[in-house]
Design brief:
- By secondary structure, the chain is α+β, with helices and mostly antiparallel strands.
- It is 47% helix and 18% strand.
- The protein contains 24 helices and 22 strands.
- The strands form three sheets. A six-stranded mixed barrel has the order 3-4-9-6-8-7.
- A hairpin with a 2-residue loop joins strand 7 (132-135) and strand 8.
- Helix 12 (386-422) crosses helix 23.
- The longest helix is centred in the middle third of the chain and has 38 residues, at 295-332.
- The radius of gyration is 34 Å and the shape is globular.
Length: 777
Amino acid sequence: MHWFFLFCQHEFSFDKGFDNSEDIYRVTSTFNDGSKAPTTALPFYKYLKSEIPEIEQLSRLDADIVQVKGGKLSTPVMEYGGYWVEPAFFKIFSFHFLQGDRKTAFDAPNTVVISESLAKKLFGNVYPIGKTLKAGSNTLTITGVFREDFLNHLKPDFFASYNSDQIRESVAKVNNWVIDPNYYLYLKLKHGSNLQHVLKELNTYTQNHAAADMKASGVRMTNSLQALRDIHLYSSGYTSYIEGKQGNMKYLYLLAAIALIILLLGCINYMNLTTAQAIGRAREVGVRRVLGAGKGSIRYQFLMETIAISLFAMIVAIGLAFLLLPEFNNLTGQALSFFAKENRSLIGWVLLITLITGLLAGAYPAFYLSSFKAVQVLKGKVGSTKGVFNIRKLLIVSQFVISTCLVFATIVIWDQLHFMINADPGFDQDQQLVINLDNDQAKKHSILLISQLKNNPNFKSVTGAMGDLISGDMNLYPAGKTVSNKHDVFTDMTDENYIKTLNLKLISGSNFTPVTFTNTNTQEELEVNDIGKQVILNEEAVKVLGLDVYTAPGKYVSHLHNGIVYNYKIMGVVKNYHYFSLHSAIGPCAIMPANPLWFTTIIAKTNGRNTTAAIKYATQKWKALNPEAPFSYSFLNDVFQYDYVQDQREQQMSSVFTAVAIFISCLGLLGLVTYSVTQKAREIGIRKVVGAGVGNIVMLFSKQYLKLILIANVIALPLAWYFMNNYFLQNFPYRVQVGWWMFAVSLSAGIVIAFSTIAFKTIKAAMANPVESLRAE
């Protein structure tokens, strides 16, 4: 429970450190095909402030993964939190500056503000203001260093001004309000603005300025606003660079459910054991009643005892939580700390839950024990225990219903994850070395590097591409039809060796014919000179375009961009393959030849036995061609499997907490069996004297509890199946079927664990010398 509150405090603290954070919003877009984006096209920014008076400040933001070089670093380093922003950015986001002036940081062109950690990495203890660093191909002057003293969804390394050479001119050229809607736009509204009125004005603005481009491209778009404080936890429906850094409210719900379940199991244990030991406290209650104590004072005493136990348990739990926090961080992928600034109120929440837990756990035992009648108790008659015994049975059943549900859920989660990780993606992902072309120099030398790798026997096949598997998307429609028939199709721009290297299966047609590109100006639009007039489609693309898989080769598809129609000949059709993880259904995809100057990756199929030698050779050739750039590589299967990291964490968490839940349930069962054995010690002795064996005595105690376990399974298994089949598995387009073996394993696990728990205590009692228990008879 302490970990849960620690995690919640962390997740809910994002972006609260900014001044006026309740007035800051991000513009989002919704398109006519149902897709959503947390971004807009570049020109959307132009007239907003002048046409919507409620907007106080606004800034575009472009996320960038870029090589940074400067200070004491002779070799560039990759920074994954770089952003290009408007000069007004720090008038919206009040980062706390360690050095420099936030108000004037972007007054001059070609300027950059860096994080405290990046400043230390680049300059050590040297004052960085006025010094320069190179971000990509831009040389920028450092005008500020910001502190990293509160959580925010951007997690930045640096902010560079859009008012920089090349960037400024590149941004000014973009005039289409619909194409490439991949830029973040943040607004700061005047305090007290009517949000609904602003939304209405925002969509009027969209219609006034984007209508012509929407009509020309066949795209219909509406816009909305997402509150800054909602971005971290409520952005799972978006897929973009910043969203990859965010949390997920569903993850919090999962943790909350687990925490409450474990807390509930602990409360049930306490109620069971307390009422089971009622006879031991009966005389005390009787004496106090004779001396004039009322039911209220007795209830108060037992509640205070329970709260005292809860407080003691809280102190022990805090110590354990502190000691085991590193393991919890590994499990959740977080870096939580009890001493973080956002956790100042943590102790208050923990204390409140401790008191509530004490009251809930102690309420039933307090009322039960205070109900004893003094005369009967002092005569040795506690009264009928039938009702309370039935309640204890109900509580045991409840515990094992919860535990069985968790066991079943863990099995389904494990099976689904195993299926996704081991499913055939439809392409060869093994021993595929992915080399990152992170700068202009590396892109310029990509053709030569590909050629050198091809000529080395450690590589079977080599290709270049604009993305590992997907580089973007474009609108395509059958040639001869209008843009109203268009469909958004994912693309990867590559060369003629792509199909062979990834071992994609051609169903019909053929591979590309080699294309020679002569253009060297990458400032132009890609479509103008740098895409070959050929395309290979997957089955899904052929389907949505209304074509036939076997007759599509030889036909043409069209693409509308900036008012110009480009036509591409369909060369072939490949079998559907998973270019995203199995979390996403396979959509339409097009593979097209492109100018190698645009390539961002090289994919090289290595000879599995000589992978180390292949990497060594690639490193040598890279350093010879790109001496100033670090050699950055990964493997395609690792890139592809990265999407399953969160699933693996959920699977590990469910396994760990299921084990904890079972352990708590077994502790409760063990406590009741122990008490029952103690109460029936003489009966066990007499049975042994008259010839009963160990097995007979074990079964005597096991029968009543195993019946309860079977009842729990009868309740739990249909319930668990319903929720896992209709809720959990429905989140996956490709999913396992719930099989009979899952029910069998869950049932067997419950019976075996329960029987082992019961046998652990009863065997010891059955093997005891009966003389000891009958000595006083």
